[in-house]
Amino acid sequence: MGYSKKIYDEADKVMQDRRNRALKSADNRKERFFKKYPEAQELERQLSYTMTNLIRAMLGNKNGLNEAMQKLKAENMATQMRLKQIYARAGITQKALEPHFVCEKCKDKGNIDGKVCDCYKQLVKEIAYNQLNELSPLKLSSFETFSLHYYSDVIKNEKRVSEREQMRLYLEKCKSYVDTFGSDSKSMIMRGDTGLGKTHLSLAIANELIKKGFGVIYCSAPDILSQLEKEQFGKGYNKSEESVEDALKECDLLILDDIGSEFSTTFTKNKIYNLINYRLSCNRPTIISTNFTFKELEQTYSQRLISRIIGEYIVLNFVGHDIRQMKRKEKMNK
Ligand SMILES: Nc1ncnc2c1ncn2[C@@H]1O[C@H](COP(=O)(O)OP(=O)(O)OP(=O)(O)O)[C@@H](O)[C@H]1O
Ligand SMILES: [Mg+2]
Ligand SMILES: [Zn+2]
Q: What span, in angstroms and rounded, lies between the C-alpha atoms of 17 and 30?
């Protein structure tokens, strides 16, 4: 997956820090150990000296081990044995003094024999997600802070259930969506007027899934579209670095908040269409929220796309009165 240079630079920095920290802490441990067991330090010095001589001798002689080398090797073994005895006396293993890397496979270098290590790929992914999620008020919205008392418990004549009951069902649905989330999860559309809790609930889902380790990207449609537009038409755009768009296509869950509120152009319509359609085709779940009715969505995007959404998405029609306003009033009355 391609990301921008900025993300790779950040990843390189994190790897470098990890490695430096591991090496430094090993140095400190060794220093403390040598202070207590100076003879160990002397033995280590001998070991590295005989080792260097042995390697030098081996490189200069292609006819196998000669007598002098055999002697060096024996000396080396003996020194190692004595070192081991000191470790045993101190109650530690040699490993305890070696650097402890986050990734033992690549020793926090990010690559093994020139091949990119999995830990580096994972790190790049995390940085990309964090950058995209930086602007969202993720922390503030949770299932716990979602209260049902803002929705009326009166059953209106033409309805079977109260708004509160309907929203209770939606809340439960969102919770079980999180509990059972996986690659075969369905997509979901949250539709309704302003201030009814669509963003709140979609962020609550994002929060829980991120905690579970899924790659979730939350973004508001107007923000992400203008970012994509900049990336596409901006100076220095490099086709091989389709960073944001790739992340949007590939993440485990994409939350596209507030579609329909973007400034509508052929570019934005095509992007939304392609993104939603692409993810539907590869069975990757998406959560969309919008103030638009299905009719308005059809008029803005394509009829074919909206009928696919109606057919394949879980549809939540939010009800109630503007909670943003209710909360403002509550604050004023305090
Ligand atoms: N059930 C709820 N309990 C507590 N707070 C809520 C609830 N629903 C919404 N809120 C709060 O009210 C404000 C508006 O909610 P939110 O942003 O989720 O609305 P929305 O449906 O996304 O509106 P819009 O269509 O304008 O984007 C937020 O601060 C949110 O945290
Ligand atoms: Mg919203
Ligand atoms: Zn690694």
A: 20
Q: What range defines the domain where residue 102 resides?
A: 20-117
Whether residues 89 and 144 share a domain: the answer is: no
Cα(160) to ligand 1 centroid in Å equals 24
Ligand 3 centroid – CA 217 distance (Å): 24
Q: Measuring from atom 17 of ligand 1, which residue has the nearest CA? A: 199
Helices marked H in 61-197 — which ranges?
67-90, 118-133, 163-179
Q: Does 248 map to a domain?
A: yes
pLDDT tier for residue 169 given thresholds of 50, 70 and 90:
very high
Q: What is the pLDDT of residues 64-76, one digit of tens each?
A: 667 888 888 899 9
Confidence of residue 241 (pLDDT cuts 50, 70, 90): very low
Q: Is residue 101 part of a domain?
A: yes
In this structure, the number of other CB atoms found within 10 A of the CB of residue 94 comes to 11
Distances from the Cα of 283 to the Cα of 125, 177, 203, angstroms: 20, 16, 21
Closest CA to 287 of 254, 309, 318: 254
Co-location of 78 and 162 in the same domain: no
- Residue 30 is encoded by which pair of tokens? 């060794």
What is the reported pLDDT for 59?
Answer: 82
Residue 135 has pLDDT above 70, yes or no: no
Q: Give the count of alpha carbons within 13 A of 74, CB side only.
A: 7
For ligand 1, which residues put their CB under 6 angstroms from it?
141, 145-147, 150, 194-200, 258, 291, 323-324, 327
